[in-house]
């Protein structure tokens, strides 16, 4: 009698373990496209990512680099004070997008140019994404907003 109970308990434990491993695998598979790592321009210049890798870049839109091209194509550079990365984006920019303002872009780094598929701009004059703020502090160019 006890051996039957023990055998049933082992079967339940094995089944639960298999279900847990399967669920973890499915969650990881579903999230594979949703995970985008953040990189500062200095990180990109130091170690350029593969052209197939999608990631986020953040920093300040470099002054004097914003050029509107044909149609909705926009070119500009993003800097963290230590390095600058050229960006090309085709689409409608957020209303708050401007030079010397914080931004985060999602896309790929191909042939020395970040090809953005999405651009996010800061919310107001005091907001800056944490990753961008940390990168600017690391470069020594971050200035805290005056209250």
List its salient traits.
OB fold (Dihydrolipoamide Acetyltransferase, E2P), alpha+beta, 5-stranded mixed barrel, 147 residues
What can you see in these coordinates?
- Keywords: Cell inner membrane, Cell membrane, Cytochrome c-type biogenesis, Heme, Iron, Membrane, Metal-binding, Signal-anchor, Transmembrane, Transmembrane helix.
- The chain is an alpha+beta fold and 147 residues long.
- The chain folds into two domains: 1-35; 37-139, OB fold (Dihydrolipoamide Acetyltransferase, E2P) (Beta Barrel), CATH 2.40.50.140.
- 31% of the residues lie in helices and 30% in strands.
- It is built from three helices and seven strands; from the N terminus they run αβαββββββα.
- A five-stranded mixed barrel has the order 2-4-5-7-6.
- It is elongated and about 80 Å long.
The chain-level mean pLDDT equals: 85
The first-level CATH class name of the largest domain: Mainly Beta
Whole-number tally of structural domains: 2
**Helical residue percent?**
25-40%
Give the neighbour order of strands across the main sheet: 2-4-5-7-6
What string, H for helix and E for strand, traces the elements in order? HEHEEEEEEH
The termini sit apart by 74 Å
């Amino acid at each position: 009698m006890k051996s039957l109970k023990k055998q049933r308990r082992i079967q339940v434990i094995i089944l639960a373990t298999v279900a847990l491993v399967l669920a973890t695998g499915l969650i990881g598979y579903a999230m594979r496209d949703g995970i985008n790592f953040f990189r500062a321009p200095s990180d990109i210049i130091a170690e350029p990512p593969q052209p197939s890798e999608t990631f986020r870049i953040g920093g300040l839109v470099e002054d004097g680099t914003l050029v509107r091209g044909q149609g909705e194509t926009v070119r500009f550079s993003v800097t963290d004070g230590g390095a600058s990365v050229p960006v090309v984006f085709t689409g409608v920019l957020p209303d708050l997008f401007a030079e010397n303002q914080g931004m985060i872009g999602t896309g790929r780094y191909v042939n020395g140019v970040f090809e953005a598929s999405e651009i996010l701009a800061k919310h107001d004059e005091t907001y800056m994404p944490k990753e961008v703020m940390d990168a600017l502090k690391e470069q020594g160019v971050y200035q805290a907003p005056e209250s």
